[in-house]
Amino acid sequence: MNTQNKSQIETIQSANLLNPQEKINELTGEVVNSGAARRYKYLEGHPRQYRFDAKEGVFNINGNEKVGRTLTFQPIAWRIFTDNILNMGTKNWAELFFIDEKNCVSAILFHGYSVDNIFRLIEPLYYDDLTLADVVITAVAEKKENNKIQPKGVYYIANFSYKMADVEKTKELKQFAQEAKVFRQETLTDIANIKTAMNYYNPFVNLVDEPALLPAG
Question: Using CA atoms, how far apart are residues 53 and 155, in angstroms rounded to an integer?
Fold first, then answer.
């Protein structure tokens, strides 16, 4: 490593200009990405889709690959909102983003009573100065019956529990979520009523208005 490169590296390091996932190539002096942003797979706006089948009570990937009646994950971003999406009418939704076991940025949607249960999870975390990003969540399908109709209706809602996440892993995930543009194009509208969100990138909000043209003369 030549003297010039060494000087550049020392200047950058002393100024704390590097993100946690970046390091300096000592041969070239170039800042390279060596951490989460390179390790995690994410096609911007198109996360891997996990789904909760409220009729059958199972979680699946893309509607066909079943993963069971429980799903465990650590959220990196989320929003709770009201909107008319996926041709399902206006509902309360919770959209959670996480990194799955294959290091893919993934998303899952919940609606109805399941959203109420997520709020019940958020409340105690809030009073402990924590968020969903600080914990590992386990979602479990719980069977419900509607006896007001005949034959009786059977459906499932998601219940949630949590445990504290690994501190170092949490730091890495938070850093990634703050730098990536985390959203799902398919569920994005410009009329959503967002109740709460964290690390969610909304292209409609982040659009830069074009400057108005001034009349000639």
Answer: 9
Dist CA 79 CA 108 (whole Å): 11
| pTM exceeds 0.85 for this model | no
Q: Tell me what pLDDT residue 35 has.
A: 58
Tell me how far apart the alpha carbons of residues 86 and 184 are, in angstroms, rounded to a whole number: 12
Edge-first strand listing for the sheet containing 135-146: 70-73, 135-146, 153-164
Q: At CB < 8 A and 24+ separation, what contacts does 197-205 make?
A: 197/77, 197/78, 197/79, 197/80, 197/81, 198/77, 198/78, 198/79, 198/131, 198/132, 198/133, 199/76, 199/77, 199/78, 199/97, 199/133, 199/174, 200/77, 200/78, 200/79, 200/95, 200/97, 201/77
**Tens of pLDDT, residues 156-203:** 999 999 999 999 999 999 999 999 999 999 999 999 999 999 999 999
Strand, coil or helix: 36:
helix
Task: Find out whether the peptide bond into 151 is cis, omega within 30 degrees of 0.
Answer: yes
Residue 93's beta-bridge partner residues?
81, 111
